[in-house]
Amino acid sequence: MTFRPLKAAVLAAAFVVTPALVLAQSATTRPAAVQAGTYGVEPYHTRVLFAVSHLGFSTWYGEFTGASGSLTLDPAKLGESHVDIAVPAASISTSNAKLDDELKGDKWFDVAKYDTIRFRSTRITRTGANSADIAGDLTLHGVTRPVVLKARFNAAGVNPLDKAYTVGFEVSGDIKRSDFGVTTYVPMVGDDVHLIISAAFEKKAA
Fold first, then answer.
1. Per the database record, which ranges form the Lipid/polyisoprenoid-binding YceI-like domain (predicted)?
2. pLDDT for 133-162, tens place per residue?
3. pTM of the predicted structure, to 2 decimals
């Protein structure tokens, strides 16, 4: 008798969350099952993270948010797929407001002059069952240079919260900030920057 209320509560909780879990479980991790079409960036769950050495003592992290752009995707013809993403440079955040203001200034990103960071793919090459290399042009601080990003497919399916068909990827890559004219405090603050992009796209209506 003592345990009946607890058991009832557990069963009730399970009943409440089960529909959402069932919907989430309908997502596929098979690239071939992903719906072909045109997708738009889902900005609330897309983040561009960066890591850089700070004086050799620690690694400093930050992020950019507010991404926009599109993905044209055909799993059967991956080489014909294309991605174009733009991120507002002023969205930079390191959890330190004073540093954020400095990074937005003309000694670093100079966001008043160069307000957008943009990546446009030029070639997508499958490298594994769930992975691909994305070659493209990265424009940062007014400089455009070729880079190669590594993408891993996470899953695709109907988002149980907003009902939108969604596809998600984890993307990573490395650049040298001096290649883009951001040279302040090199080499004390690292020149090598590691990027991690958590990218979500929602399919657009036909």
1. 38-202
2. 999 999 999 999 999 999 999 999 999 999
3. 0.85
